[in-house]
Design goal:
Elements (H helix, E strand, L loop, with lengths): L1 E6 L9 H16 L5 E6 L1 H5 L9 E4 L7 H19 L3 E4 L11 E5 L4 H4 L6 H17 L2 E4 L2 H11 L6 E3 L15 H7 L7 E5 L8 H10 L7 E5 L6 H10 L6 E4 L4 H10 E6 L8 H8 L4 E4 L4 H5 L4 E3 L4 H13 L1 H16 L3 H17 L1
Parallel strand pairs: 1-2, 1-4, 2-3, 4-5, 5-6, 6-7, 8-9, 8-11, 9-10, 11-12, 12-13
Length: 375
């Protein structure tokens, strides 16, 4: 059995969570596959030119496109990839980035992490939004099996794309090594990032409207000034960041809120070590990996009670209504002021995070392959 892995979407260091998921999944997938199953990854020019970082037994075939150019990426996936996969003798093609070829002489499996473009269209703008609205449903309907990462995402695929749930396999993401290096010296990092004294509440999140960071800032304003922690929001910047900074200024929270962009590995590790609590108010997540990352580090978590987050968090986090800043403030204060509750959540969180492994995800993917081949 020859399996092709469609990685045309992956631009090293620029593709976010889908790149992390692909790189984490592939090694245990190859390790768990039966001996007669071989794998070929189809990559773009950027990936082909980057340092490998892939298992030695994974053959790479370059699709001659620049995936930073959307039109090239789409044409490469729809026209060039089927020819190259047919030439290589691929019998099953697994597209790991939410889109895939609509035709080809092979079985097709696609991983769709979420349908945020449909649930929260403000999250994507312009050509990307229009492209996703066409390409994701097309690939899903032409695939033999669809993999998604949570039951909430499967429900969205059924409701918003009209897909038959019997064709959808839920395979939760795993949690790889959470430490990305040694933390920098905490006092120096605190000073470098301009963090005020006192307890730190951390939120790692892209600055996008559906992440609901305005409500988190509003919640901080509801906490009495003498009890108010420092809030650190770190993640890649977007145009929405201007609105966040405007809200901070309007609420006179400049001394208590730090909005950071990308941070170095040593700064990120230091932030985790400084954090007394992790608060995640997102309105929509296909999976919600930051919640598990916090749990695996022993940081108590409060998060939204919507989308996939309750099924990922289980009983190891405080859940709140993300549209109610008072509820967010109350959950945050509970983590900071109730040591017994915080310790219970730390212990539960460590156990919860340990349940999500990439080895388990690889087994689920192989089961989906078997269903595709039997269909």
């Amino acid at each position: 059995m020859h399996v092709g892995l469609n990685l045309i979407f992956l631009v090293p260091g620029e593709t976010g969570g889908m790149e992390v998921a692909a790189r984490e999944l592939i090694p245990p997938l190859l390790a768990a596959a039966p001996p007669q199953m071989r794998f070929t990854a189809f990559v773009n020019r950027e990936t082909a030119a980057a340092p490998a970082g892939w298992p030695n037994e994974l053959e790479l075939v370059t699709v001659p496109v620049n995936a930073r150019e959307r039109v090239q990426w789409v044409l490469g996936e729809q026209l060039l990839l089927p020819r190259l996969a047919r030439r290589a003798g691929v019998q099953l093609l697994h597209s790991l980035g939410g889109t895939g070829p609509a035709r080809g002489p092979f079985r097709r499996v696609i991983t769709i992490h979420d349908v945020i473009y449909a649930r929260h269209p403000e999250a994507h703008l312009g050509l990307r939004a229009r492209g996703m609205a066409v390409l994701v449903p097309l690939a899903a309907r032409r695939s033999d099996r669809i993999i998604t990462v949570s039951h909430a995402s499967r429900a969205d695929l059924e409701e918003l794309l009209g897909l038959d749930g019997r064709r959808i396999d839920v395979v939760p993401n795993g949690l790889g090594a959470v430490r990305r290096g040694a933390p920098g010296p905490l006092p120096q990092i605190r000073e470098r990032l301009g963090l005020p004294a006192g307890e730190v509440v951390l939120c790692l999140s892209a600055k996008r409207p559906h992440k609901n960071l305005l409500a988190l800032i509003d919640a901080l304003a509801l906490i009495d000034a003498e009890r108010r922690p420092a809030l650190v929001i770190a993640g890649y910047p977007t145009a929405h960041e201007r609105e966040l900074r405007g809200r901070v200024a309007a609420l006179h929270l400049d001394e208590r809120v730090r909005i950071l962009g990308w941070v170095s590995d040593e700064e990120r590790e230091a932030l985790w070590d400084l954090a007394s609590a992790f608060v995640f108010p997102s309105l929509y997540e296909g999976f919600g990996l930051p919640v598990l990352e916090a749990m695996a580090r022993g940081v108590p978590v409060a998060c939204s009670s919507v989308s996939s987050l309750p099924e990922v968090a289980g009983d190891a986090a405080l859940l709140f209504d993300p549209r109610d800043p008072a509820a967010i403030a109350g959950a945050t204060l509970t983590l900071l002021e109730d040591p017994a509750q915080a310790q219970r959540l730390r212990e539960r969180g460590l156990k919860r995070a340990a349940q999500f492994t990439w080895e388990r995800a690889a087994a689920g993917v192989l089961d989906s392959y078997a269903r595709a081949l039997a269909s």
